[in-house]
Amino acid sequence: MFSWFKSAATKKDSWAYSAELYAVGTVACTLFLSAALLSHAIHDHSWFYCDTNAPVARNWCGWVGACISGLFYYLFGGASLLLILLGALCSYCLLAQKKVNQEWDRLAACVGMILSTSGLLALHARDI
């Protein structure tokens, strides 16, 4: 039984373009997140705000974008805009076909910057 798991874990990808597919998916998710975060409106219908008078979402990505941007602004505040930088860095690493062990320090620094910036903004009760 254990030999079956070993053979399944050591198989090569049968499709030659799987790395490019991951890169395109990451670029698409980064662009969607960018559009959702940049067009965030506080009074859009989302999981965190509901108003019967507001007819439509003003977010460029509709109700889904309003919910996602509301969630990230709730969790990270104005530092959620740095998630665009993290997505762009991940997209660059995938498009350039760099390994994680080559770029782990930049990814860790970007995540640390997001967490520390959101913590400092919350500490001083400021927002971007």
Spell out the key features of this protein.
single chain; 64% helix
Question: Short summary of the structure?
Answer:
This protein has about 130 residues and is mainly α.
State the total count of DSSP E strands: 0
Q: Please give the alpha-carbon distance between the first and last residues.
A: 55 Å
Major β-sheet annotation: none
Structural class, please? mainly alpha
Tell me the strand percentage band: under 5%
The helix content is 55-70%
SS field, number of helical segments: 5
Query: Uncertain spans, ≥5 residues at pLDDT below 50?
Result: none
The succession of helices and strands, N to C, reads HHHHH
Radius of gyration based on Cα positions: 19 Å
Q: Round the mean pLDDT to the nearest integer and report it.
A: 81
How would the global form be characterised?
Answer: flat
Give structural notes.
This protein is mainly α and 128 residues long. The protein has helices at residues 2-9, 18-38, 62-76, 82-95, 100-123. The model has no long low-confidence stretch (mean pLDDT 81).
Write the layout of secondary structure elements.
Layout: H1 2-9, H2 18-38, H3 62-76, H4 82-95, H5 100-123
Helix pairs in contact: 2-3, 2-4, 4-5
